[in-house]
Design goal:
The chain is an alpha/beta fold. The chain folds into 2 domains: 145 residues, 3-Layer(aba) Sandwich (Rossmann fold), CATH 3.40.50; 52 residues. It has 9 helices and 7 strands; from the N terminus they run βαααααβαββαβαβαβ.
């Protein structure tokens, strides 16, 4: 059977990784979550500060760290099993693979190379001579991923019905709204589960394959 899908868009944190947020994972690894970054998250969720301000305050907690120190923390992030199997299955059907994450490029760039993604877009920590200067370049807002989906669609001339979207939280809602097939993997949101075409709960993401129409 010919595959009608041409593009797969993936969330990263919580979908490919067992950690729901790389930002939170780094904070907890440093002992900077409770009483610090957790407060900023609460302020953002309560609409007391903007997303830009939220990210700025978060990033300030890491100022002065070396790229090696941050990389060492990121390398300990646990991943779900079966990512290589799933991506290879999609690639075998000539599907373009894209990561769209409101996480950080220090992780998404590595995932892109390791699992043969064609694109990876996320937020960037800015370093000066290998030392983090406390600034972050916001490329992907957590709930505004449609912008990047549309850019990739336009680049390749792909229609919404030719897209598969993979995610776990309401930050992936816009991708699900566009895609012809939406897959919620270990969703942390009942609302996302209710709008997904497929819901899979597993420690092995390749279990999704049996739910795909190809």
């Amino acid at each position: 059977m010919e595959c009608r899908f041409k593009l797969a868009v993936f969330d990263l944190d919580g979908t490919l990784t067992k950690e729901k947020s790389l930002w939170e994972f780094i904070h907890k690894s440093m002992g900077k979550w409770y009483g610090f970054a957790e407060l900023y998250q609460t302020q953002f969720l309560d609409n007391e500060i903007s997303y830009d301000e939220f990210c700025r305050l978060d990033a300030q907690l890491w100022k002065g760290m070396s790229v090696e120190e941050l990389t060492a923390i990121v390398e300990s992030v646990p991943f779900y099993e079966g990512i290589d199997t799933l991506t290879a299955h999609l690639k075998s059907h000539d599907i373009i693979l894209s990561l769209i994450s409101s996480g950080l490029s220090i992780l998404s760039d590595t995932v892109k190379e390791k699992y043969n993604f064609d694109h990876a877009i996320s937020n960037e920590l800015l370093f000066d001579n290998g030392i983090f200067d406390g600034k972050v370049r916001i490329n992907v807002y957590f709930d505004k991923k449609a912008e990047w989906v549309n850019k990739i669609m336009n680049k390749y001339g792909i229609k919404g019905e030719e897209i598969i979207a993979f995610g776990d939280s309401m930050g992936d809602r816009e991708m699900f709204d566009i895609a012809g097939l939406s897959v919620a993997f270990n969703p942390c949101s009942e609302e996302l589960s209710s709008i997904a075409d497929v819901v899979v709960n597993s420690n092995d993401i390749s279990d999704i394959i049996k739910n795909l129409p190809f």
